[in-house]
Amino acid sequence: MAALALAGCGGGGGGVAAETAGPVGSDGAAVAGTPQTSPVGNAEGAYPFASRQVAYAAGIKPTSTTAAQMDSTIRAAYDAWKSRSIVDVPTVPGGKAVKFGSSADYLTVSEGAGYGMLLAVVMAGHDPGARTLFDGLLTTVRARPAKGMMQYFGDEAKYLMDWRLKKDGTSSDWNDKGANAMDGDLDIAMALLMAHRQWGSSAGWNYRQEAINTINALKLVDMKPDGATKGLPSADNNRTSDYMIGHFRAFARATGDSFWTKAVDRAYELINHIQTVYAPGTGLMPDFIINTHTANPEPSKGYIGDGTPTEGFFYANALRNPWRFGSDYVLSGDSRWKDVTHKLVNFIKADCGGDPTRIALGYRLDGSPTERSYPPKATIACMIGGALVDGSHQAFLNSLWDWTASHISQDYYDSELQLLPMIVASGNWWTP
Domains (ranges, CATH) in the chain? Predict the structure, then answer.
């Protein structure tokens, strides 16, 4: 889930705008980059949900249901998610957050902000309040910069979010020097580019500029010159679920910076190496990789990223990879990402006998499961994204969709990771 990346060290119209006060920090100071107005018009957007204006370049879709039925399932799940998960931030006027969970001792994480912003921008046209929700989440993002990163990387790092907020919405770090989590900021940057395409940047927030600011900060703080992502406790470690290759392609288009194309290539080199050397029979990939600066990067031996012994397994982080890689493949048609995803899905499908409820909670790279105590909803849903890459997975894809559609989660992480892959599988995903 939301582990730290580092620590310690258009188009479209504007619409009618209503005067509002900009967000402020807990000390009452105004936050840089805050708009003076908050748009309330143009709720439909340029890409209303279910319009399917962007044809997929590759892949398959579920055949056990119709497009209209998929849309109806997604709408109902989104409405329930929004009602249950979106909360006000007490210390950020106008700020919204995706609640981490009722049992947590903190309010939200930046990962949740990213998921929420992606969902809001895609569901415009169904949800008339999508833009208001998006702007509320963005207000919180900008009100809570990762000040610890600013300490080491300068003012440009203020466009990265503090990775976790307390129950009252203030920084979770005792001295207000919080770090950022790369996955949250990557999704936030992508959602901002999508918002520019969806609603334009002529009124209220300049979504495009905010996106460029975050992209540049990510390159400065979270990326190595060779295109690899950074991790903990060394920049030569990283987390495979941060290989958001579809985002990297969008960043390259938005900035004209070929560095982000190099990031796609480097991510593939690392995943292909791990599969070839450490998981030749399974295609599995670990949560974390170490020694990315050497000729032999290897799976984490544990306790360097999330601080768990399972960091070298296909587990709580890497489970998202089939969704991320499949989401990219259906739009880019890049066969490299079909290949790495196909290998993984082939193994999972064989291991569970095509029954989603038999997918293990995690796997060692040799294919041995950790446990099978209950159906892992997030893993099952993210496998939907992976199964899109090849027609040989059609029956498995149908089973994954059907089970997920009838077992919508009420919990953080599971619910977001059900909705987003289902949106992709239904043909409703698009990128700027």
Answer: 17-425 (1.50.10.10)
